[in-house]
Amino acid sequence: MNRIRKGDHVVVIAGKNKGQRGDVLRVDGDRVVVSNVNLVKRHTKPNPQANQAGGIVEREASIHLSNVLLFNPATNKGERVGTKALEDGRKVRVFRSNGEVVDA
């Protein structure tokens, strides 16, 4: 079970974007792409077949999974996540600090 999933609200805890928050757009193995975090400029050629204009495009680059924590709205901080099995057999993610269930 992945600790960070697509759509999660996360906090960056290391690097040049430390302290920024955003939603996870994509998870690629041990790297995540977070909205409006780690923006890079990409120089693209025009492609008329794909109806794509050329120029300098600003987009999000990936960050290593270890540099983000799941945001806990109760404490207003990023917190570590563990897993727990419920009585009905489902596995859910829980915050390590208070044991609160992340998944509904």
How would you describe this structure to a colleague?
- The structure is a single chain.
- With 104 residues, the protein is mainly beta.
- It has a domain at 9-74: SH3 type barrels, CATH 2.30.30.30.
- It has no helices and 10 strands.
- The protein has strands at residues 9-12, 21-28, 31-34, 39-44, 55-60, 62-64, 68-72, 77-79, 81-85, 91-95.
- A 6-stranded antiparallel sheet has the order 6-3-2-1-7-8, with no helix packed on it. A two-stranded antiparallel ribbon has the order 4-5. Strands 9-10 form a two-stranded antiparallel ribbon.
- Strand 9 (81-85) and strand 10 (91-95) form a beta hairpin.
Q: Layout of helices and strands, plus pairs?
A:
Blueprint: E1 9-12, E2 21-28, E3 31-34, E4 39-44, E5 55-60, E6 62-64, E7 68-72, E8 77-79, E9 81-85, E10 91-95
Antiparallel strand pairs: 1-2, 1-7, 2-3, 3-6, 4-5, 7-8, 9-10
Q: Characterize the overall form.
A: elongated
Parts with pLDDT < 50 across at least 5 consecutive residues: none
The number of helical segments is: 0
String of helices and strands: EEEEEEEEEE
Strand content: over 45%
Helical content class: under 10%
CA-to-CA gap between the ends?
A: 15 Å
What structural category arises from helix and sheet content?
mainly beta
The overall average pLDDT, rounded, is 93
Strand order of the largest sheet: 6-3-2-1-7-8
Strands, count: 10
CATH topology of the domain at 9-74: SH3 type barrels
Task: Report the CATH C-level class of the domain at 9-74.
Answer: Mainly Beta
Q: How large, in whole angstroms, is the Cα Rg?
A: 17 Å
Q: Do you know the CATH architecture of the domain at 9-74?
A: Roll
Query: In this structure, how is the largest beta sheet organized?
Result: 6 strands, antiparallel
